[in-house]
Design a protein that fits this description.
There is one protein chain. With 224 residues, this protein is α/β, with parallel strands linked by helices. Helices cover 42% and strands 19% of the residues. It contains 8 helices and 12 strands. It has a 5-stranded parallel sheet with strand order 2-1-3-4-5, with helices on both faces. A 4-stranded antiparallel sheet has the order 6-7-8-9, with no helix packed on it. It has a 3-stranded antiparallel sheet with strand order 10-12-11. The N and C termini lie far apart (37 Å).
Length: 224
Amino acid sequence: MLVVDDEPQIVRALAINLRARNYEVDSAHDGATALRTAADRRPDVIVLDLGLPDMDGVEVIKGVRAWGRVPILVLSARQTSDEKVKALDAGADDYVTKPFGMDELLARLRAAVRRAEPAPPTAEPVVLQAEGLSIDLGAKKVRRDGKDVRLTPTEWHLLEVLVSQSGRLISQKQLLKEVWGPSYQKETNYLRVYMAQLRRKLEADPSHPRHFITEPGMGYRFEG
């Protein structure tokens, strides 16, 4: 696990709590060190502050997303909706505001790691084909027009929930619970951001989606 924060007391507190739960912890106090450490060590999850001394944390997210799908949990004092959406849009998987409760943070970290774990093998691999899309639920792979598409763990989890119930309307509340956990009830901005990301990556015309359909005020559904 990589903890990126320029406040030594926060890094120390997280390291103590994480190591007590048998996590190996690396730390970085600025963005450049974070990017180098992430590339060298390939952590299972990154905890990232946005207010770093040398660059904005959003740039770190973009740098990591250029090569990998490692879960990124933002830990920041910035509390506005715009800041949260900006981080999520760049590829973060979750967002916790300071000050924070350690129990909640650890629960969200566990959830982020679970979302990134490979699915257990099934008796028959499930592969969905839909107008240029090939979605392999067992291998967690997506191809569009014959080319691999890289998704973050959270993007994949959202896609998996929608595809596994293809054609059915899934409520916003259910999607939030399935993808982010039962403590998420009102974070509908998460859904808007991630649905936009899936459309951008997987729809031929994201402004006129064919597969990822919004039912205003109700929820979303996947049409194969």
